[in-house]
Amino acid sequence: MSEKIKSRILGDDYTIVGDADPDYIKQLAEVVDRKARELSLGMPSAPKLKLAVLVALNFADELEQIRSTKNSSEAASPDAEAKTKKLITLLEEGLIGDL
């Protein structure tokens, strides 16, 4: 059953609809907000959409680094990959839904 979870990222309110545990979605939103705020310190005049893309690239880089440190015959943790895909989907849905 999908639930609507309200979150605040970079001062904007988002309603995120998802099947995941609401606390987990809130936690993801907090991670995204923290990373976006961290990036905005170095780029104070950057538009929020640009920051969102940079956040997504940072998380994608982290995932690829995890993958590359594993043995080439091993795949990335299905759990980590699933969480990353959920995060990207939530970002996309949040950006598209609120623009």
UniProtKB/TrEMBL annotation:
Query: By its UniProt entry, which InterPro entries does this protein fall under?
Result: Bac_CellDiv_Activator (IPR053712), Cell_div_ZapA-like (IPR007838), Cell_div_ZapA-like_sf (IPR036192)
Described function = Activator of cell division through the inhibition of FtsZ GTPase activity, therefore promoting FtsZ assembly into bundles of protofilaments necessary for the formation of the division Z ring. It is recruited early at mid-cell but it is not essential for cell division.
> Where is it chiefly localized?
cytoplasm
GO CC term (a single one): cell division site
> The organism's lineage?
Bacteria, Pseudomonadati, Spirochaetota, Spirochaetia, Leptospirales
Where it sits in the cell: the answer is: Cytoplasm
Oligomer and partners: Homodimer. Interacts with FtsZ.
The answer to whether the entry has keyword Cell cycle is yes
Q: Which Gene3D superfamilies match?
A: 6.10.250.790
Keyword tags: Cell cycle, Cell division, Cytoplasm, Septation
Q: Which Pfam families match?
A: ZapA
What is the name of this protein?
Cell division protein ZapA
The biological process GO terms on file are: division septum assembly; FtsZ-dependent cytokinesis; septin ring assembly
